[in-house]
Amino acid sequence: MASEIIVDARGHHCPVPTLRLRRALEDAAPGSEVRLYADDPMARIDVPHFAAGAGFEVLETAQEAGTLSFLVRKPV
User: Fold this and answer.
1) pTM of the entire structure?
2) Residue 23 and residue 25: Cα distance in Å, rounded?
3) In what residue span(s) does the UPF0033 domain sit (predicted)?
4) What is the pLDDT of residue 2?
5) Over 70: is that where the pLDDT of 9 sits?
6) Which residues are annotated as catalytic?
7) 59 close to 36: Cβ distance less than 8 angstroms
8) Are 70 and 47 in contact (CB under 8 A)?
């Protein structure tokens, strides 16, 4: 499998992180994984909500030093 696609949206307020994630997932091949980094606390709510509504799978959610990290898979 190819390496994950990285989207760094730190320093941006929602909805920008979610919009950048959506664009990356739309451009990605089926089965690809996209990792989003965001520091807006609203991303903790917005990203899972977007992913569920759009049919993407959130594989991992983590937080370290104020940065949220989401690993999202595009279905095959």
Assistant:
1) 0.94
2) 5
3) 7-31
4) 57
5) yes
6) 14
7) no
8) yes
pLDDT tens digit sequence for 13-68: 999 999 999 999 999 999 999 999 999 999 999 999 999 999 999 999 999 999 99
Distances (CA, A) of 63 to 40, 42, 52, 55, 69: 11, 13, 20, 23, 6
Of the candidates 4, 5, 11, the residue with the CA atom closest to the CA atom of residue 67: 11
Which residues face 69 on adjacent strands?
37, 62
User: Which residues lie across from 8 on neighbouring strands?
Assistant: 37
Contacts of 15 (CB under 8 A, 6+ apart): 46
pLDDT at 11: 97
Strand partners, 34: 5, 72
